[in-house]
Write a structure and sequence with these properties.
The protein is an alpha+beta fold.
Length: 183
């Protein structure tokens, strides 16, 4: 009798579970971006760049006129650091610091919305580089420049842009409080 009672309770429970899986479907959700509706990214490459002492070990150029760029857009510069075994460039995002026997060498850049400058800086005289090091860091360099639109008009990322210099961000908690972050 006890087994029949347990079997009936099990069958009833199973029927309730299976019956609860039916019903009308809910309302459709909102369509999201498919990745093609966002702002574009423009990429161009500059090859055969040689840094020379006469130019203070810097190289500058204009951003091509056919690339629209706003003050809020991001400019990222990558340096081809090496070529892998398949013949593909291995890119490193600048700035990069290299620790050599002579000291520290840094490849850095700055930009405006119209141009950019790539700078080789070090805490030692760059004339002290070995031939191999000069070939690796100064001669026939290849750079890839990416202009990433940071326009907030077409896509809302939820990020807040802080342009008010009246704020003092002395501690992380002050910045977190301003951005309404909670622990």
């Amino acid at each position: 009798m006890k087994k029949i009672k347990t079997l009936l309770i099990g069958l009833l429970s199973l029927s309730f579970i299976l019956a609860s899986c039916e019903g009308p479907s809910g309302p459709p959700g909102n369509d999201g971006f498919d990745g093609r509706d966002g702002s574009p990214t423009f990429i161009f490459e500059i090859a055969n760049v040689t840094f020379e002492k006469d130019a203070n070990y810097s190289f500058g150029d204009i951003i091509p006129n056919d690339i629209p760029i706003d003050d809020s857009d991001l400019v990222l510069i990558y340096r081809s650091n090496e070529v892998n075994s398949e013949g593909d460039d291995v890119w490193q995002l600048l700035p990069q610091a290299y620790f050599l026997d002579q000291g520290t060498l840094q490849v850095n850049f700055n930009h405006t919305k119209d141009d950019f400058e790539i700078i080789i800086d070090s805490n030692f005289d760059l004339d002290d580089l070995t031939t191999d090091q000069a070939n690796r860091f100064l001669t026939n360099q290849v750079f890839r420049i990416a202009v990433v639109s940071a326009s907030t008009s077409s896509v809302n990322t939820g990020a807040k842009i802080l342009n008010n210099s009246a704020f003092d961000y002395e501690t992380i908690s002050q910045g977190a409080q301003l951005l309404n972050f909670t622990e």
